[in-house]
Amino acid sequence: MTAPPPARPAAPASQLRGTLLMVVSTVFFACSDVVTKELAGRLPAMEVVWLRYVTFGALVIPLVLAGGGGTALRSRRPGLQILRGFGMAGSAMLFTAALPYLPVAEATAIYFVSPILIMALSIPFLGETVGWRRWSAALVGLSGMLLVIRPGTSAFEAAALLPLLGASSWALAAVVTRKMSGQDPATTTLVYSALVGIVLMSLLQPFVWVAPGLPEIGYGLAMGVLSTLGHWLVILAYRHADASIIAPFSYIQLLWAGILGYFAFGSVPDAWTIAGAGIIALSGLYTAYRERVRAAEKA
User: Fold this and answer.
1) Cα separations in angstroms, 213 against 29, 45, 140, 209, 210
2) CB 116 within 8 A of CB 144
3) Among the listed residues 53, 90, 97, 94, the one whose alpha carbon sits nearest the alpha carbon of residue 202
4) Residues 105, 54, 179, 169: what is their CA dihedral angle, to the nearest 10 degrees?
5) DSSP letter (8 states) at residue 4
6) Of residues 250, 298, 240, the one with CA closest to residue 13
7) How does residue 39 score in pLDDT terms, banded at 50, 70 and 90?
8) Which spans in the chain are helix H?
9) What are phi and psi of 27, to 5 degrees?
């Protein structure tokens, strides 16, 4: 749901503006995750995701349609748009399902292996070539994830696999986004994301529905608004700055997740989680650096 990076290198002031927008977006995403964790303890995960999509759609679809009319629904690759929507909905559902059992910081750290998975999927689906440096960074990032979930030890929780599966689903959506890059405007992708999520989650509600009270509705609205504002800020960030510059700043969300998780739920990440999250972030930062080098070599 991000706009393509500018065709020309952005001015330093614009790059700074884009960086600040990306940093602020991480605050909104972390706040949304904290609210989601609270709500996931009250309602089924699929219902929580449905509330999120309904709020997202109510905020975004009318604005997009008002600006572009029916053209916002015209896609050159509707099949890929729908597949992308399924990937995003699956990602949201799996991550939300993990939150009643895991601290926000731990779930977020595991979820941030998605850039590594995107890199791996880009080989068979996009025909990209990945050199030994990026593979080495990927292995380092995976070792960080293993530090967080610690399989085979008493600290391991099966729920830790849910954000990993969610990251895989998001990676699929990201690869599909790359595959149809330049074929549809960002607004079309935004509308398809909302519609696919609303339809899919609505079909599942009869199997899980629990009548929400006013507090749950309030939490649902807050969650949807925070998430939507976060995505909107990311779109603005990519309009002002190059992706290779601002994408690494998304890892600041790991810091907010730990801070907000502590104040909201009293959960303190243990040393293993902090170490693993740090390794994952360093791996992602190096991968982003190599992407920038490759882009410069092709220019």
Assistant:
1) 24, 16, 45, 12, 9
2) no
3) 53
4) 40
5) P
6) 240
7) very high
8) 12-40, 45-68, 78-98, 104-111, 114-126, 132-149, 161-179, 186-208, 214-240, 243-246, 252-265, 271-298
9) -65, -45
Q: Token match 């030994």: residue?
A: 132
Structure tokens at 239: 């309009």
Catalogue the long-range contacts made by 243-246 (C-beta closer than 8 Å, 24 or more residues apart).
Answer: 243/2, 243/5, 244/5, 244/288, 244/289, 244/291, 244/292, 244/295, 245/15, 245/18, 245/19, 245/292, 246/15, 246/18, 246/19, 246/21, 246/22
Cα separation of 195 and 199, whole Å? 6
Tell me the pLDDT tens digit for each residue of 125-150.
778 777 778 788 888 888 888 888 88
Tell me the whole-structure pTM to 2 decimals: 0.86
Closest CA to 39 of 244, 213, 293: 213
- What residues contact 175, with CB distance under 8 A and at least 6 apart? 118, 121, 122, 125, 126
For 246-275, the pLDDT digits (tens) are 777 888 898 999 999 999 999 888 888 899
Q: 107 with 44: CB under 8 angstroms?
A: no
| Residues sharing a CB contact under 8 Å with residue 294, sequence separation 6 or more, in sequence order | none
Are the beta carbons of 103 and 41 closer than 8 angstroms? no
